[in-house]
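Dear colleagues,

For the upcoming journal club I promised to circulate an example of a predicted protein-ligand complex. I picked one with carboxymethyl coenzyme *A because it came up in last month's discussion. The inputs are reproduced below in full, followed by the predicted structure.
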Amino acid sequence: TGLITLDPGYGNTGACTSAITFIDGEKGILRYRGIPIEQLAKNSTFVEVAWLLIFGRLPSQAELDDFRERLVRSAPLHEAFKHHFEGFLVDAPPMAILSAMVNTIACFPRRGAESESPEENFLENAAQLISKVRTIAAYSYRRSMGLPFIYPDFKLPYVANFLHMMFSTPYEQHIASREVVDALNLILLLHADHEQNCSTSTVRMVGSSQANIYASCAAAVGALWGPLHGGANMAVLDMLEAIHKGGISAAKAVEMAKDPNDDFRLMGFGHRVYKNFDPRARILKQAADKVLGQLGVNDPLLDVARQLEELALEDSYFVERKLYPNVDFYSGIIMRAIGIPTNMFTVIFAIGRMPGWIAQWKEQHDDSKARIARPRQIYTGPNETEYVPIDKRK
Ligand code: CMC
């Protein structure tokens, strides 16, 4: 064991090289393929960013059109696929459904699967995943509400199509406003990759055994589900609601979060890598103000959020530990304002992160030097111990 270095939570272990995403946590910088996140947030779309992450550069118009076309064609689920949803109880967590269903995609015939070109095969798989995860997400919501499934509309772009599948009814098409579509596009774009976080490391861990891309991404959904990772966006809303409804003051909540004898943490605060404002949170904070203003939403939870932020940013506990608001702090407020139910928040994160998972799976797959991930341990159990027959045990 002398040769093994212990690094709990891999805080200081580089597990791979990667050319996809750059983060400087001290300065609060995030770039996808070298392009600052602020520029992408201002000028790009989720679908274009997906292509950028996966293929390493911005697409030409023809490449982007081709990719969009593939996403459109990949949106429907096989009719037999729909029966899988019926196996779940209506109140099953959408993340459980999503994880199972991402794996299930690979069990159905898919376009491109028969292709002899590995590039074509990969491109189709990528499009299938990015497109179908959205259909599955919407269907899991419809199932939970006891509503009929709504087929994708081939004329609608990515985000509008998702909102259509979520909220249209057989007798009335839901038309999302420009503001709502833009806000969701922004949220997805900002979640699209974040280097070796827990779910992405899971993709690489599972993919390193040469498991297929669907199995790798399904495992990542499980990792994302936890409240310390993607589940934090739901936890933020639950926390803001509890504070608001319980009549707890923001100051009291901050005190509770600081108390070492209290498990309560300020959800949406802190990050393993960012020791400065999360640049995604900075963008979303502005977007939250704008969207809520445009939609005329007056949300008391936003006031609670603002108070918490103000208090925490001035409090020595948070300052010393460099705990700043992260992406989840504001994304939930925007999603709530545009009508996404709280139990779908982490699913939206999964839709957003899918291009990153795919890009990282590909990078590892293309790396001829990649090895199976197999960490070591430092054993702390008993020394050699004799087996005791059952009648002699105390
Ligand atoms: N509220 C109160 N105290 C906190 C918080 C918080 N949100 N986050 C960290 N701390 C304290 C923690 O108690 C510890 O204090 P001490 O040194 O006195 O023991 C210190 O700060 C360091 O925390 P840590 O748990 O060792 O840090 P970590 O790098 O292991 O955890 C984290 C990072 C994001 C899991 C953690 O900050 C946290 O639990 N935040 C709340 C959940 C959350 O918002 N997660 C979303 C992360 S961003 C999106 C994503 O990646 O999914």
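Two points we might discuss: The CA atoms of residues 21 and 303 lie 33 Å apart. The longest strand covers residues 21-24.

See you all on Thursday,
B. R.
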